[in-house]
Design brief:
The protein is α/β, with parallel strands linked by helices. Helix content is about 30%, strand content about 25%. A five-stranded mixed β-barrel has the order 5-8-7-6-9, surrounded by four helices. Helix 2 packs across helix 5.
């Protein structure tokens, strides 16, 4: 794995000079952030050695270097999911490459099902912690000390400093933000009512099929993480209805401008 990481990083360094220290994974809710980038340089995943290719509708597959409000950023337009059949090492490979490239901050977004009774579809949840319910751990197997410690600390998986700054930005701009714990599951099915109930009892506020693996690997690598989740459906008893991928995207589009604004303002302050 080390040789693949170094090969990929070497390729990108040859294509691009001055790699940014800020990485962004454009999941659901942040896709339109690309439109705010300037001085864009784009490399399709298919051209990058060892990179998987996203197969999910609505997820493009490009690595982008650009300026967001005059701040250099490295952007993943499209991510990889465990439910697509990739191993955890493949899902998190881009984060490993970011570490090798010198990335220090990682911003992530996703879509999730809200389980907190006060949540509504279209709400934005600032992720304060997570529960890992994936069947495979991304750090399982041989540990490479160059990548991080064998037993990484996860007491602050999501940067408290960035969370506090985001809350101040939201308050100043009259943006309503929920806060909560994200439960990461394998998918690809949406949850049954009984599963929603179980995850809520466990302490979860929202549940989704991504983010947790990348966050674990980022923490292992010493990268600070900030993550937002858009509530695209509800797993609250009495509010559970049939949901489709198209409806998830529609709900995300409503929250998208606010999520983009918060991330842009946060990055300015780094």
């Amino acid at each position: 794995m080390l040789s693949q990481i170094k090969e990929t990083a070497s390729y990108l360094k040859k294509r691009w000079k001055n790699i940014p220290e800020i990485g962004i994974i454009l999941g659901t809710g942040l896709g339109e952030l690309v439109n705010d980038l300037e001085d864009i340089q784009r490399i399709p995943y298919t051209e990058i050695p060892n990179f998987p290719v996203s197969t999910v509708e609505g997820h493009s597959g490009n690595l982008i270097k650009g300026l967001l409000g005059n701040v250099p950023v490295l952007v993943m337009q499209g991510r990889f999911h465990y439910y697509e059949g990739y191993s955890m090492k493949e899902v998190t490979f881009p984060v490993r490459v970011m570490k090798e490239l010198g990335v220090k901050y990682l911003f992530i977004s996703n879509a999730s099902g809200g389980m907190n009774p006060v949540f509504e579809v279209g709400d934005i949840m600032l992720i304060t912690d997570h529960i890992n319910f994936f069947p495979e751990h991304p750090l399982r197997g041989k540990n490479y000390s160059e990548l991080g410690p064998r037993f990484p600390d996860m007491s602050e998986a999501y940067s408290k400093d960035l969370i506090q700054k985001a809350l101040i930005i939201a308050e100043k701009n009259s943006i309503s933000l929920q806060q909560g714990i994200y439960v990461g599951v394998q998918g690809p099915t949406f949850e049954t009512p009984a599963e929603y109930k179980l995850f809520r009892i466990m302490g979860g506020d929202a549940v989704g099929m991504s983010t947790v693996p990348e966050v674990i690997v980022a923490n292992h690598a010493g990268i600070k993480v900030f993550a937002l989740s858009v509530i695209t459906d509800l797993g609250v008893e009495g509010k559970i209805v049939e949901i489709t991928h198209e409806e998830v995207q529609q709900a995300a589009n409503i929250a998208q401008p606010k999520m983009t604004f918060i991330v842009k303002e946060l990055i300015k302050d780094l």
